[in-house]
Amino acid sequence: MVIPSGVVVLTDRRLAAGPLVETVEQTFAHGASWVILREKDLPYAQRSALASQLRTLAPGRVIVAGPDALGGNAVHLSSTDVLDRRVELVGRSWHGTEKLSDEDYVTVSPIFPTASKPGYGPALGAAGAAALAGARPWLALGGIDSAARAAECMALGAAGVAVMGAVMRDPALTRSLAAVAG
Fold this sequence. Notes:
Layout: E1 6-10, H1 20-29, E2 34-37, H2 44-57, E3 62-65, E4 74-77, E5 89-94, E6 105-108, H3 125-133, E7 138-141, H4 147-155, E8 160-163, H5 165-169, H6 173-181
Parallel strand pairs: 1-2, 1-8, 2-3, 3-4, 4-5, 5-6, 6-7, 7-8
InterPro entries: Aldolase_TIM, ThiamineP_synth_sf, ThiamineP_synth_TenI
GO molecular function, one term: thiamine-phosphate diphosphorylase activity
Keywords: Thiamine biosynthesis
């Protein structure tokens, strides 16, 4: 099982510097490793078509947020979504209080205060997130907007960094994050 690592881009078409697929394509050109398709408010057909487009950009590296993999093999669940092992890869958003089952990885958040979700927290800090995750593979999420912050998380055992707003607004930032997050 390949666990997401490096720079994992979470989509948000409202924050994107341009059309979403083009913005994601730019993040991959700058070193992104994986993408998590959010866009949960889109109608099913549009969201499914978007997942297909992203799979052409990043074969085998597209994770769909929510329990429906939209024809793929990977999902990222919220704290309340039900685990379904009919897919190959399962991640979960985790804040330390939700019950975990046999997820392959978790995102731990927020690591730092974040512009995308002001007031969301309290921020755990990289050391707090590492302690919370323990031996479970984890991605640092929230406020990862510089190479220094990414490096801090990686030094404390993160498998990678999950980034939304910073790279949606500036896809070129992915390059400096990837330099330290792999």
